[in-house]
Amino acid sequence: MSKKIKDYVIITIGMFMVAAGLYFFLMPGNLAIGGANGLAIVLNHVFPFLSIGVFMIIINIVLFIVAFLVIGTSFGVKTIYASLGTSFLVLLFEKIIPIHAPLVEDIILQLSFGIFISAIGMGIVFNRNASTGGTDIIAKILNKFWGIDLGKAVLLSDFAITIGAGFAFGPELGMYSLLGVIVNGLVIDSTIEGINLSKQVSIVSKRSEDIKKYIIKDLERGATLYHAEGAYTGDKKQVLVTVVDRKDFIRLKNYINDVDKNAFITVSNVYEVLGDGFKNIGD
Known about the structure:
By secondary structure, this protein is α+β, with helices and mostly antiparallel strands. The protein has 2 domains: 3-195, no CATH class; 197-270, Alpha-Beta Plaits (2-Layer Sandwich). Helices cover 65% and strands 11% of the residues. The protein contains 10 helices and 4 strands, in the order H-H-H-H-H-H-H-H-E-H-E-E-H-E. Strands 2-3-1-4 form a 4-stranded antiparallel beta sheet. A hairpin with a 6-residue loop joins strand 2 and strand 3.
């Protein structure tokens, strides 16, 4: 499967999650946690003759024009697909599975399920250099030019929408919406970090040559050798450093255990790796 097809398959999965979280949990409770959907919920309350799905499409059309102009063609094309696709999914749900009341009476349950399903979907989409539209586009601009974490950027751009929800639906729902925005941002960042998580492994072993060959030939990863000296013994040593994904880390650990049970290994989490064998620097 080519990278482009894989990107769109993964974006579609994220898109379905976002639409499901919004439609089945957040929208019935008027929980406007930001984004085009949050603004659409508020606007639908003021102008009920247009559905939330229609408002989402209108808002996204305006904002993805901004994405084309400011962020670039690649991001814009993927965002058109994801944002309009999410909006049309919401419209489809409205037609085939109409919901006239919240699924449950507990607003905390609605908020929790809605946030976790939609925020994980947003994180998946963000990780493919796209957006589900709405204020996510503004968040991507803040991330691109000022380096603000995507989740925190979403929080900033969505704050005004929660204020509008407070005026439209009352302070209680406004406060729940604000809480939702905060949790939403944290879940997005956690999702992206979890998807990109790799392991940086430093190895000191008498069998470093065998381990190096295993990393290069079997794991098809690169490695770096540092020459070091033991502080206590004064012995000359080699420190082998590599970065691998979680699956390959298990394989590497098992191999080291087989060839040198006395090897000294330190492991640290790395949340983004750019370069050969990982993400392109421009992604």
